[in-house]
Amino acid sequence: RVDPLGAFRYSSDLTRGVRWRLFLFGVLLAALNVVGAFLLGVGLIVTIPISAFAMAHVYRRLGERYEHDRVVVIPEPVPA
């Protein structure tokens, strides 16, 4: 529900500090799918859903971490 530049900003904030780990995760999923393709394509029936669930899990964990880090505590006003 944001404009394209806002989506890029959100993505940048979401992945800050874990970009290399996400890159390696992507390489690992690609390798998993290549292995599935080597098994006469039948392995893709297993590896593609595993990859999709893994990506969804990582996205949810990143979102939880982002929301946790964004929590702003507003102090109670001091009585005069």
Give a written overview of the molecule.
By secondary structure, the chain is an all-alpha fold. 74% of the residues lie in helices and 0% in strands. It contains 3 helices and no strands. The termini are far apart. The model has no long low-confidence stretch (mean pLDDT 87).
Which SSEs are present, and which pair or pack?
Elements: H1 4-15, H2 19-38, H3 44-70
Helix pairs in contact: 2-3
Task: Write a brief structural summary.
This protein is mainly α. The protein is built from 3 helices and no strands.
Describe the structure using short key phrases:
single chain; 80 residues; mainly alpha; 0% strand
Residue-averaged pLDDT, rounded?
87
Radius of gyration: 19 Å
Number of helices: 3
Give the termini distance in whole angstroms: 42 Å
Strand content: under 5%
Major beta-sheet overview: none
Uncertain segments are: none
Oligomer: single chain
Structural class: mainly alpha
- Number of extended strands: 0
